[in-house]
Here is the input.
Amino acid sequence: MKLHSALSAQYPHKAELHTHTKPCSRCGQVPPEEVVEKYLAIGCSSLAITNHLLSEVYSQGDPHELAEQYLADYYAAKKAAEGTDLSVLLGVEIRFSENGNDYLIYGIEPADVERMIPMLNSGIEAFYRAFKNDRNLIIQAHPFRKNMVLAPLDSIDGVESFNLHPFHNSRVALAAKYAKENGLLVTGGTDYHDPTHEGLCLLRTAEKIHDSYELAEVLKSRDYLFDISDHLVIPPDVKD
Here is the structure.
């Protein structure tokens, strides 16, 4: 058996880690029900909904009401996936008031969104100290994109090296190099916004991922591949 076939068989399950939906993310072009259809059509097992939680949008008002507003698309995607083989996972792409950086949060549940909202006017260092626990992961998204600032290494668990948004230069080679040099976890995703861009970068795993906590555990295990249009990428071993 050739190497590609052997690895594909060993890691058969495909997961999307970075997805935006309409209307929760203002930049999203596709409603959650259609996103579910598209990812089912390309054979994905898991789909992380990671809509934008922006300080300028969600920092004013009742945190409970704002959280329910934010979570509406996630719940709509879960409902659309009922009775299918697709597991919809909760993630967040959070942006604080301190700068334009984005951070992907995995290993969470809906109640955590309400906890995050009062922290939007802080910054990544304060957020990491207050929110980090043994079950979640805090990942700097596309850290080498224009206008991004590298987060303190003690305030993140990893970096999104393989962000394949077609309309942004995320300088993936620099991000991959930075992750390796600093022993950071490496993630990747399509950064899905537009109707024809589904599945540009997927995670491939040996077992199906059923929820956000399982996703965080898989990433911590470092036992996964990236699938970039059926080209398989093996992340390097990193320091514990």
Observations:
- The two ends are 33 Å apart (CA to CA).
- Residues 13 and 207 are 6 Å apart (CA to CA).
- The chain is about 30% helix and 20% strand.
- The mean pLDDT is 95.
